[in-house]
């Protein structure tokens, strides 16, 4: 488990937030996973990435402190589902998850695709039913795993770490994975894999979503309101767009 140092931020904001005296300067527990290029572990053990920088900017504007824990996604998701006053990122804002969390703001719109190796899928496939018998890897409790289960895919391999999905594909242990192009390109570079061997098979329109920041359902309303206002402020001030440009996020 990677734990970032406790980040204490002092106010640089002129904007006053509702209930700020009850929320500012409090430590907020934050859970996440490693997911390139959104959450990246640096060689020195610190955490960076596009979404992490947005979260740091958010806490700076909110005048609060973040204690960020990096966990396998299933564990992070379980904590955020069952524990009050927990922030989680980067989490796909899906229809199924919408009532389960308080949503703070969108980081990026995502398009997800089925991917396989060109050697396995030389021909184009338009009918999703033809993919349901293939072996497919997905992270446990991910929106991908939830989709596959709900749509009667037969051979789902639920894994703990996102990197394992791509490694299993390249080693021939599964036939398909589901991800965005940006994530797979970044991960292939990290793992030393040839991305050109991969084939984008079919868009999974049902999984297209806003990658987001959210709070657990039992989080205090004034905390949620405070961070929503802080998120709106950094979006309005162009901070998020600047971080996107730095990380070449479209």
UniProtKB/TrEMBL annotation:
Secretion signal span: none
Domain (Solute-binding protein family 3/N-terminal) ranges: 27-249
UniProt xrefs under Gene3D superfamilies: Periplasmic binding protein-like II
PANTHER family referenced in this protein's UniProt entry, alphabetically: PERIPLASMIC SUBSTRATE BINDING PROTEIN FAMILY 3 (PTHR38834), SOLUTE-BINDING PROTEIN FAMILY 3_N-TERMINAL DOMAIN-CONTAINING PROTEIN (PTHR38834:SF3)
Name of the protein in its database record: Solute-binding protein family 3/N-terminal domain-containing protein
Organism per entry: Thalassotalea marina
């Amino acid at each position: 488990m990677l734990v970032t140092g406790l980040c204490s931020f002092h106010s640089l904001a002129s904007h006053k937030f509702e209930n700020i005296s009850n929320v500012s300067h409090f430590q907020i527990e934050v859970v996440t996973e490693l997911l390139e290029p959104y959450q990246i572990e640096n060689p020195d053990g610190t955490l960076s990435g596009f979404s992490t920088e947005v979260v740091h900017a958010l806490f700076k504007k909110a005048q609060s402190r973040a204690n960020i824990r990096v966990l396998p996604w299933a564990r992070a998701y379980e904590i955020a589902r069952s524990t009050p006053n927990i922030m989680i990122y980067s989490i796909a804002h899906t229809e199924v998850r919408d009532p389960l969390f308080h949503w703070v703001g969108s980081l990026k719109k995502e398009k997800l695709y089925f991917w396989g190796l060109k050697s396995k899928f030389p021909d184009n496939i338009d009918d999703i039913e033809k993919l349901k018998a293939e072996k497919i890897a997905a992270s446990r409790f991910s929106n991908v795993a939830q989709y596959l289960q709900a749509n009667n895919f037969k051979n789902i391999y639920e894994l703990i770490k996102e990197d394992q999905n791509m490694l299993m594909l390249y080693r021939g242990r599964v036939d398909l994975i589901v991800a965005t192009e940006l994530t797979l390109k970044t991960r292939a570079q990290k793992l030393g894999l040839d991305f050109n061997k991969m084939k984008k098979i079919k868009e999974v329109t049902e999984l297209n979503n806003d990658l987001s920041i959210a709070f657990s359902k039992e989080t205090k309303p004034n905390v949620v309101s405070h961070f929503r206002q802080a998120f709106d402020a950094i979006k309005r001030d162009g901070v998020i767009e600047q971080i996107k440009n730095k990380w070449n996020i479209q």
